[in-house]
Amino acid sequence: MCRIYCSNATEREDLFQEMVLQLWKAFPSFRSEAKISTWMYRIALNTAISGLRKKKIAIIELEKVSFQIEDKQEANIDEELQHLYKAIEHLSDVEKSIVLLYLEDKPYEEIAEITGITANYVAVKMSRIKEKLKTLIKVYQ
Amino acid sequence: MTELEDLKNIWSKTIEKDVGQQVVEQEKIRALLNKKSTNIIDRVRKNLFGEIVLFFVCLLLVASVPVFLRTKEVFILCSLLIVVIFIPYLIYYIKKYNELRKFFSYHQDIKSSLQLVISQLEKYLNIYFWGSLLLTPVSGFLLGFAILYEMKALGFLIYFDVFSSATLSMILSFALLLTLISYPVMKWYIRKLYGQHVEKLKDCLRELNESA
């Protein structure tokens, strides 16, 4: 999730940290009305969408090292998956949340429960997103 | 070209591998929880606390004026400022602060949470704008008055009556001019502070509302 919403490692780490913090804060109010996974996705996605994030440029030597390590790891990740990540970067925050839940194999009903829109609209949105991604991936290939 | 379904399979395999490599350490989580939050409502709440402190300091300053200038007019003016502006605003600010402390919308679906966050932010930005705008003529008037009073006390304005209606009108005009200037400045500052973020959240909500 952090990878989809943030373009660099420092931002990803910050977002991850914020998600853990919000989940921790929210846990006492968990009432089992929804599945724990649905509840966790809601908090994490709300944190990613509503949070105030500043673009950071890493200049510290130590961080440079971690970038290098990560770059090597990224090179090993499937090339097609890299294209997918690049294409997702062009989507809106709402579209990112829907595509993420789709990739996590969530049914449209659960996506609807997390996003607050109807399952029918999720299907409509998803078909539009698929078209968009298809075009974008083609460009990267 | 690879279909999205194929990518979905590659994605789930990669994620599974990633999750398997993650080790949850208690110390790491504890350290994460101690770091500064980027939650927008938490930021706003901290700003509001700053405003409360500022208002309180201003209240103390206004309350201290009659101690140094022991005239009936000054006493009435300062009492009016405290009772009509400072105390109601402070009560309102503290009420809003407590409301924000209890506010948490992230456990709701994204659409409802966005609606709540936007309404809270708009409410706060409105309060912040009007509160700051209200303080400008008050502080402008007090500043003008204090400068003239001090200059007279130092012997620069010997034939000048600080309490005359002409002087008071002049100080009042200065305070109003300051307010007029601060109006667009405040609008720009608030937009710079949170306005763009509110717009971004509104765009997300608009996108979710497209189906309705």
Architecture overview:
The complex is a heterodimer of chains A (141) and B (212). By secondary structure, chain A is mainly α. Chain A has helices spanning 2-5, 9-26, 36-50, 61-76, 79-88, 93-103, 108-115, 119-140. The two termini of chain A are 23 Å apart. Residues 57-69 of chain A have low confidence and may be disordered. Chain B is mostly helical. Chain B is 83% helix and 0% strand. Chain B has six helices and no strands. The longest helix of chain B has 45 residues, at 165-209. The interface between A and B is large, with 52 and 41 residues.
Which descriptors would you attach to this protein?
heterodimer, A: mainly alpha, 8 helices, globular, B: 212 residues, mainly alpha, 6 helices
N/C terminus separation of chain A: 23 Å
- β-strand percent of chain B reads under 5%
Summarize the biggest pleated sheet of chain A.
Answer: none
**What's the oligomerization state?**
heterodimer
Please tell me how large the radius of gyration of chain A is: 16 Å
Query: Helix-strand pattern of chain A, N to C?
Result: HHHHHHHH
Shape of chain A: globular
Query: How many β-strand runs of chain B?
Result: 0
Q: How many E-type strands of chain A?
A: 0
The secondary-structure class of chain B comes to: mainly alpha
* β-strand amount of chain A: under 5%
SS field, number of helical segments of chain B: 6
Note the main sheet of chain B: none
In short:
The complex is a heterodimer of chains A (141) and B (212). By secondary structure, chain A is mainly α.
SSE layout and pairing:
The complex is a heterodimer of chains A (141) and B (212).
Chain A: H1 2-5, H2 9-26, H3 36-50, H4 61-76, H5 79-88, H6 93-103, H7 108-115, H8 119-140
Helix pairs in contact in A: 2-3, 3-7, 5-8, 6-8, 7-8
Chain B: H1 4-21, H2 26-33, H3 40-68, H4 72-102, H5 110-153, H6 165-209
